[in-house]
Specification:
The complex is a heterodimer of chains A (378) and B (379). Chain A is built from 15 helices and 13 strands. Chain A has 378 residues and is of the alpha/beta class. In chain A, the strands form 4 sheets. Chain A has a 6-stranded parallel sheet with strand order 3-2-1-4-5-6, with helices on both faces. A 3-stranded antiparallel sheet of chain A has the order 7-8-9, with helices on one face. Chain A has a two-stranded antiparallel ribbon with strand order 10-11. The longest helix of chain A has 24 residues. Helix content of chain B is 35%, strand content 16%. Classes of the chains: A alpha/beta (378), B alpha/beta (379).
Chain lengths: 378, 379
């Protein structure tokens, strides 16, 4: 039995952060109902990658919203709003990511929700919190990355800021929302009262920088510098940490005993015996290592280094990755109401030894109105 | 009231992935006891190669392990293991991130712990799962980023693989483990049953890339192609990226190219009446050449009022000076038992308006032994 069976979640969220949290809850067993405006539905339905659509909705939408139901309601229409309020009385959790003030205007702020369901758990995703000069700014992933300092951690020093190539703020914020909502369920179990959970993209992307920010705070405000040779991987770590070009691909080397690694790679690192030099001269050392590593193939080095316990890996692409048998299924097939099948990823959390699969694709707008009305409203 | 008050978590994990999960649970109110090897402790105290040492140990250790207790015990000695088991019998959660088989050899597999604590939530993080050919390989962040193709999403097309510059896979696995543990605790509260929660860095890295991997599964197996310059997402069209200006950098997320051409007085952009994905390299190079001619503020003052999604690119020094950052109250000071204080970040989640701060710094190795032995009667 999945841990969240019986939990009902109403998702007013759009795009990625909130809906990715809804997906996690759904895979853990919750019943997640998207509350969407009639006809058009959630905005992400029309947002596509490479123009890929499954039905009227994009593949992107299907990726984020599988395993959910849809209830179409026009929140500006009083009759629909009443229905939604009735749903709230039956729900455990509701989430939204409207800009500050929007839910107040609709009449579904935390206070309104608590008034109809004193035990509701109310999750809010914002870009920058509810206060201060940034609270009105668009909470968009790249902008949040840019403001948060994150862009100075990847790539090389001479490249200027390099953003993370995925919506990292959104995804981490979604993960934090899940944590907050689940903790709220535990709090509610003790107090029997509703709970307000708030997360923001900026706090989430600052949280993942906790190591870098703590160093900055305790190191006299020194700004970290990235290395400036190809394959630099971490501003705070010494050689050999990084990616190296081989004769036929790329090899990553994590932290390790540099002298021993130098010996195995037959690179003369005599000058750098003292450990503190591994950081100070990381670019010079990494250049010397590169000159050795490029002489042979990735598999040659892997075999040699792995046998000696050196932490290394081959750099793969999606085609390589897809061909590997990891001893467990890494993907699943989902099917929409028109029997169209899509292959996608699955929940990363295994429970009681079970991989949490689900065949259910994302819903059409309002696909479950009738069923939900019967079941919850009557 | 913190939501996890009264929960006891016994944490065998080291480095970042597991300890970042227990930090979150500690901040939300749980009592976390780190189980460490006498003498050396969590390898992160010393081995994690960072440039900054604080109070004799790595800054990274202090960041991840504040708000926890440390119990140093050599559980390979049978009599010590027996003591430890008395502690485990009282735990709500037992968690570790050893490689598959290690806890079994110690005698603390899920089944063994269940014998002394039938409703325990037993949680683990592995590198690559517990089956399959990769299971015994080191589960290290850069290696996982490399193996799961994450390195082909950041940086520009000609750059080769570019890792994300922090241990993102560790943190994702930690976040997922915390989710699994919380879900299991909820089920424990409502149904009085324990659970086995398993997360791997591999599955977490797949989950992080769920949008791009699903695209790959459904677009005929095409590999991502980053833009030649100003890349911020291999799958998005222009202008999505960071651009150099006369005095710094700014980011531009989404905006119609003809509208941008008007607003920025960029005549060269007018040749692109549509925002064609296939022309994104050309559009970006024209934008880059144009934006570098004026200061960031000059452009932001034009674009922000027009609702174009854009932002300044800040470093920590600039960020900390912003009112938008200061109102978050994101920095807290913590104090170790010996009086050493340091500043660090706080938990990113607010519940009922409460910020989960805690003044408790990281523990010295074994600092809580005596108290734990007395309290849990482990003699």
């Amino acid at each position: 039995m999945r841990p969240l069976e019986g939990i009902v979640v109403l998702e007013f969220c759009q795009f990625l952060a909130g809906p990715s949290a809804g997906l996690k809850l759904a895979d853990l067993g919750a019943r997640v109902i998207k509350i969407e405006r009639p006809v058009k539905g959630e905005a992400c339905r029309q947002l596509s990658i490479k123009d890929l659509f499954v039905d009227e909705s994009s593949l992107l939408f299907h990726t984020i919203n599988r395993n959910k139901d849809s209830f179409a309601a026009d929140l500006k229409n009083p009759a629909d709003l009443e229905l939604v309020k009735k749903l709230i009385t039956k729900a455990d959790i509701m989430t939204h990511n409207f800009r500050p003030g929007v839910m107040d205007k609709i009449g579904l702020a935390f206070a309104d929700a608590i008034a109809v369901n004193p035990k509701i758990i109310y999750g809010v995703v914002s870009g920058y919190g509810e206060e201060g000069p940034w609270s009105k700014k668009p909470g968009q992933d790249l902008l949040v990355q840019s403001l948060s300092g994150l862009a100075w951690l990847s790539g090389r020093k001479s490249q200027g800021p390099v953003p993370f190539g995925l919506s990292t703020a959104d995804i981490m914020c979604g993960n934090h929302l899940v944590q907050g909502l689940l903790a709220a369920l535990l709090k509610r179990a003790k107090t029997d009262k509703g709970v307000l959970v708030e997360v923001s993209l900026i706090e989430s992307v600052l949280d993942i920088q906790f190591e870098a920010i703590t160093s900055y705070l305790n190191d006299g405000g020194k700004l970290q510098e990235r290395g400036d040779v190809e394959g630099s991987a971490h501003a705070f770590l010494s050689a050999p940490y990084g990616v190296y070009k081989t004769q036929d691909g790329y090899l990553s080397l994590a932290m390790g005993d540099l002298m021993f690694i130098g010996e195995l790679l037959q690179v003369d690192l005599e000058k750098y015996q003292e450990k503190h030099l591994w950081f100070e001269f990381r670019d010079e050392i990494r250049t010397l290592l590169s000159e050795g590593i490029i002489q042979k193939t990735t598999d040659h080095w892997l075999e040699l280094l792995q046998e000696k316990g050196v932490w290394c890996a081959k750099v793969l692409n999606y085609q390589d990755l897809d061909a590997i048998d990891f001893g467990m299924p890494m993907k699943q097939t989902i099917e929409n109401s028109e029997h169209k099948k899509i292959v996608t990823t699955r929940s990363p959390i295994q429970f009681d030894g079970e991989i949490l699969m689900s065949r259910k694709a994302a819903p059409k707008v309002g696909e479950h109105n009738v069923i939900i009305q019967k079941e919850f409203i009557r | 009231m913190k939501p996890l008050e009264d929960y006891l978590i016994i944490d065998f994990s080291q480095f970042l992935s597991g300890p970042s999960a227990s930090l979150r649970l500690a901040d939300m109110g749980a009592r976390v006891i780190k189980i460490e090897k006498p003498g050396t402790g969590d390898i992160c105290r010393t081995l994690y190669t960072s440039d900054l040492i604080m109070n004799g140990e790595s800054s990274v250790f202090h960041t991840i392990n504040r708000n926890k207790e440390s119990f140093a015990i050599d559980f390979k000695q049978p009599e010590e293991l027996a003591k430890l088991k008395k502690l485990l019998a009282k735990a709500d959660v037992v968690m570790h991130n050893f490689r598959p088989g290690v806890m079994e050899r110690i005698g603390l597999s899920y089944e063994e712990v269940q014998k002394i604590n039938p409703n325990v939530v037993y949680a683990s993080i592995s590198g690559y799962g517990t089956k399959g050919a990769f299971k015994d390989l080191p589960g290290q962040d850069l290696l996982l980023q490399s193996l799961t193709a994450l390195t082909w999403l950041t940086g520009n097309e000609g750059d080769g693989p570019v890792p994300m510059g922090l241990s993102i896979v560790d943190m994702l696995a930690g976040a997922h483990l915390a989710q699994g543990i919380l879900a299991a605790l909820y089920r424990k509260v409502t149904q009085n049953v324990g659970a086995l929660v398993e997360v791997s860095m591999l599955e977490s890295a797949f989950d992080f890339q769920f949008e791009t991997i699903t695209t790959f599964f459904n677009d005929g197996g095409e590999l991502p192609v980053r833009t030649k310059t100003n890349n911020a997402n291999a799958y998005l069209g222009a202008p999505y990226g960071i651009y150099q200006t006369k005095n710094g950098y700014m980011s531009l997320a989404i905006g119609s190219i003809p509208v941008l051409a008007e607003l920025l007085f960029c005549d060269d952009l007018k040749q692109f009446p549509e925002n064609k994905f296939t022309l994104r390299d050309d559009i970006k190079s024209i934008l880059a050449a144009h934006l570098v001619t004026q200061d960031s503020e000059y452009w932001l003052n034009i674009l922000e009022p027009a609702d174009i999604w854009c932002a300044n690119v800040l470093n920590y020094e600039q960020l900390f000076a912003q009112e938008g950052f200061q109102v978050l109250d994101f920095v807290q000071q913590v104090e170790m038992l010996d009086g050493y204080t340091y500043k660090t970040t706080r938990c990113p989640i607010r519940i009922d308006g409460e910020l989960f701060t805690s003044g408790k710094g990281s523990p010295k190795l074994g600092q809580d032994n005596e108290r734990i032995i007395t309290e849990f009667n482990l003699c």
